[in-house]
Amino acid sequence: MAKQPTGKPGEWFWCLKHRKVEEGPECPARNRLGPYETAEAASHALERVASRNDEWDTDPRWQ
């Protein structure tokens, strides 16, 4: 039996599989980034990931 996606209406996610914003539990958690408060925020999820990765890559505590 497949696991049911978790989340609730009003929570927004970026789906890595479908490469789109989704509301609530449409896809499994392993395929999503979020939750975000708005669809707009979810639409920028990959930009946020890239920004955080850059920050962590240049953090002197990790070098």
Architecture overview:
With 63 residues, this protein is α+β, with helices and mostly antiparallel strands. It has 2 helices and 3 strands, in the order βββαα. The protein has helices at 39-43, 45-57; strands spanning 12-15, 20-23, 32-36. A hairpin with a 4-residue loop joins strand 1 and strand 2 (20-23). The N and C termini lie far apart (44 Å). The model has no long low-confidence stretch (mean pLDDT 89).
Order of helices and strands: EEEHH
Largest sheet: 3 strands, antiparallel
Q: Bin the helical content.
A: 25-40%
Q: Pick out the low-confidence regions.
A: none
What is the number of helices?
2
Number of extended strands: 3
Features:
elongated, alpha+beta, 63 residues, three-stranded antiparallel beta sheet, 2 helices
In short:
The protein is an alpha+beta fold. The chain has two helices and three strands.
Break the fold down into its secondary structure elements and pairings:
Layout: E1 12-15, E2 20-23, E3 32-36, H1 39-43, H2 45-57
Antiparallel strand pairs: 1-2, 1-3
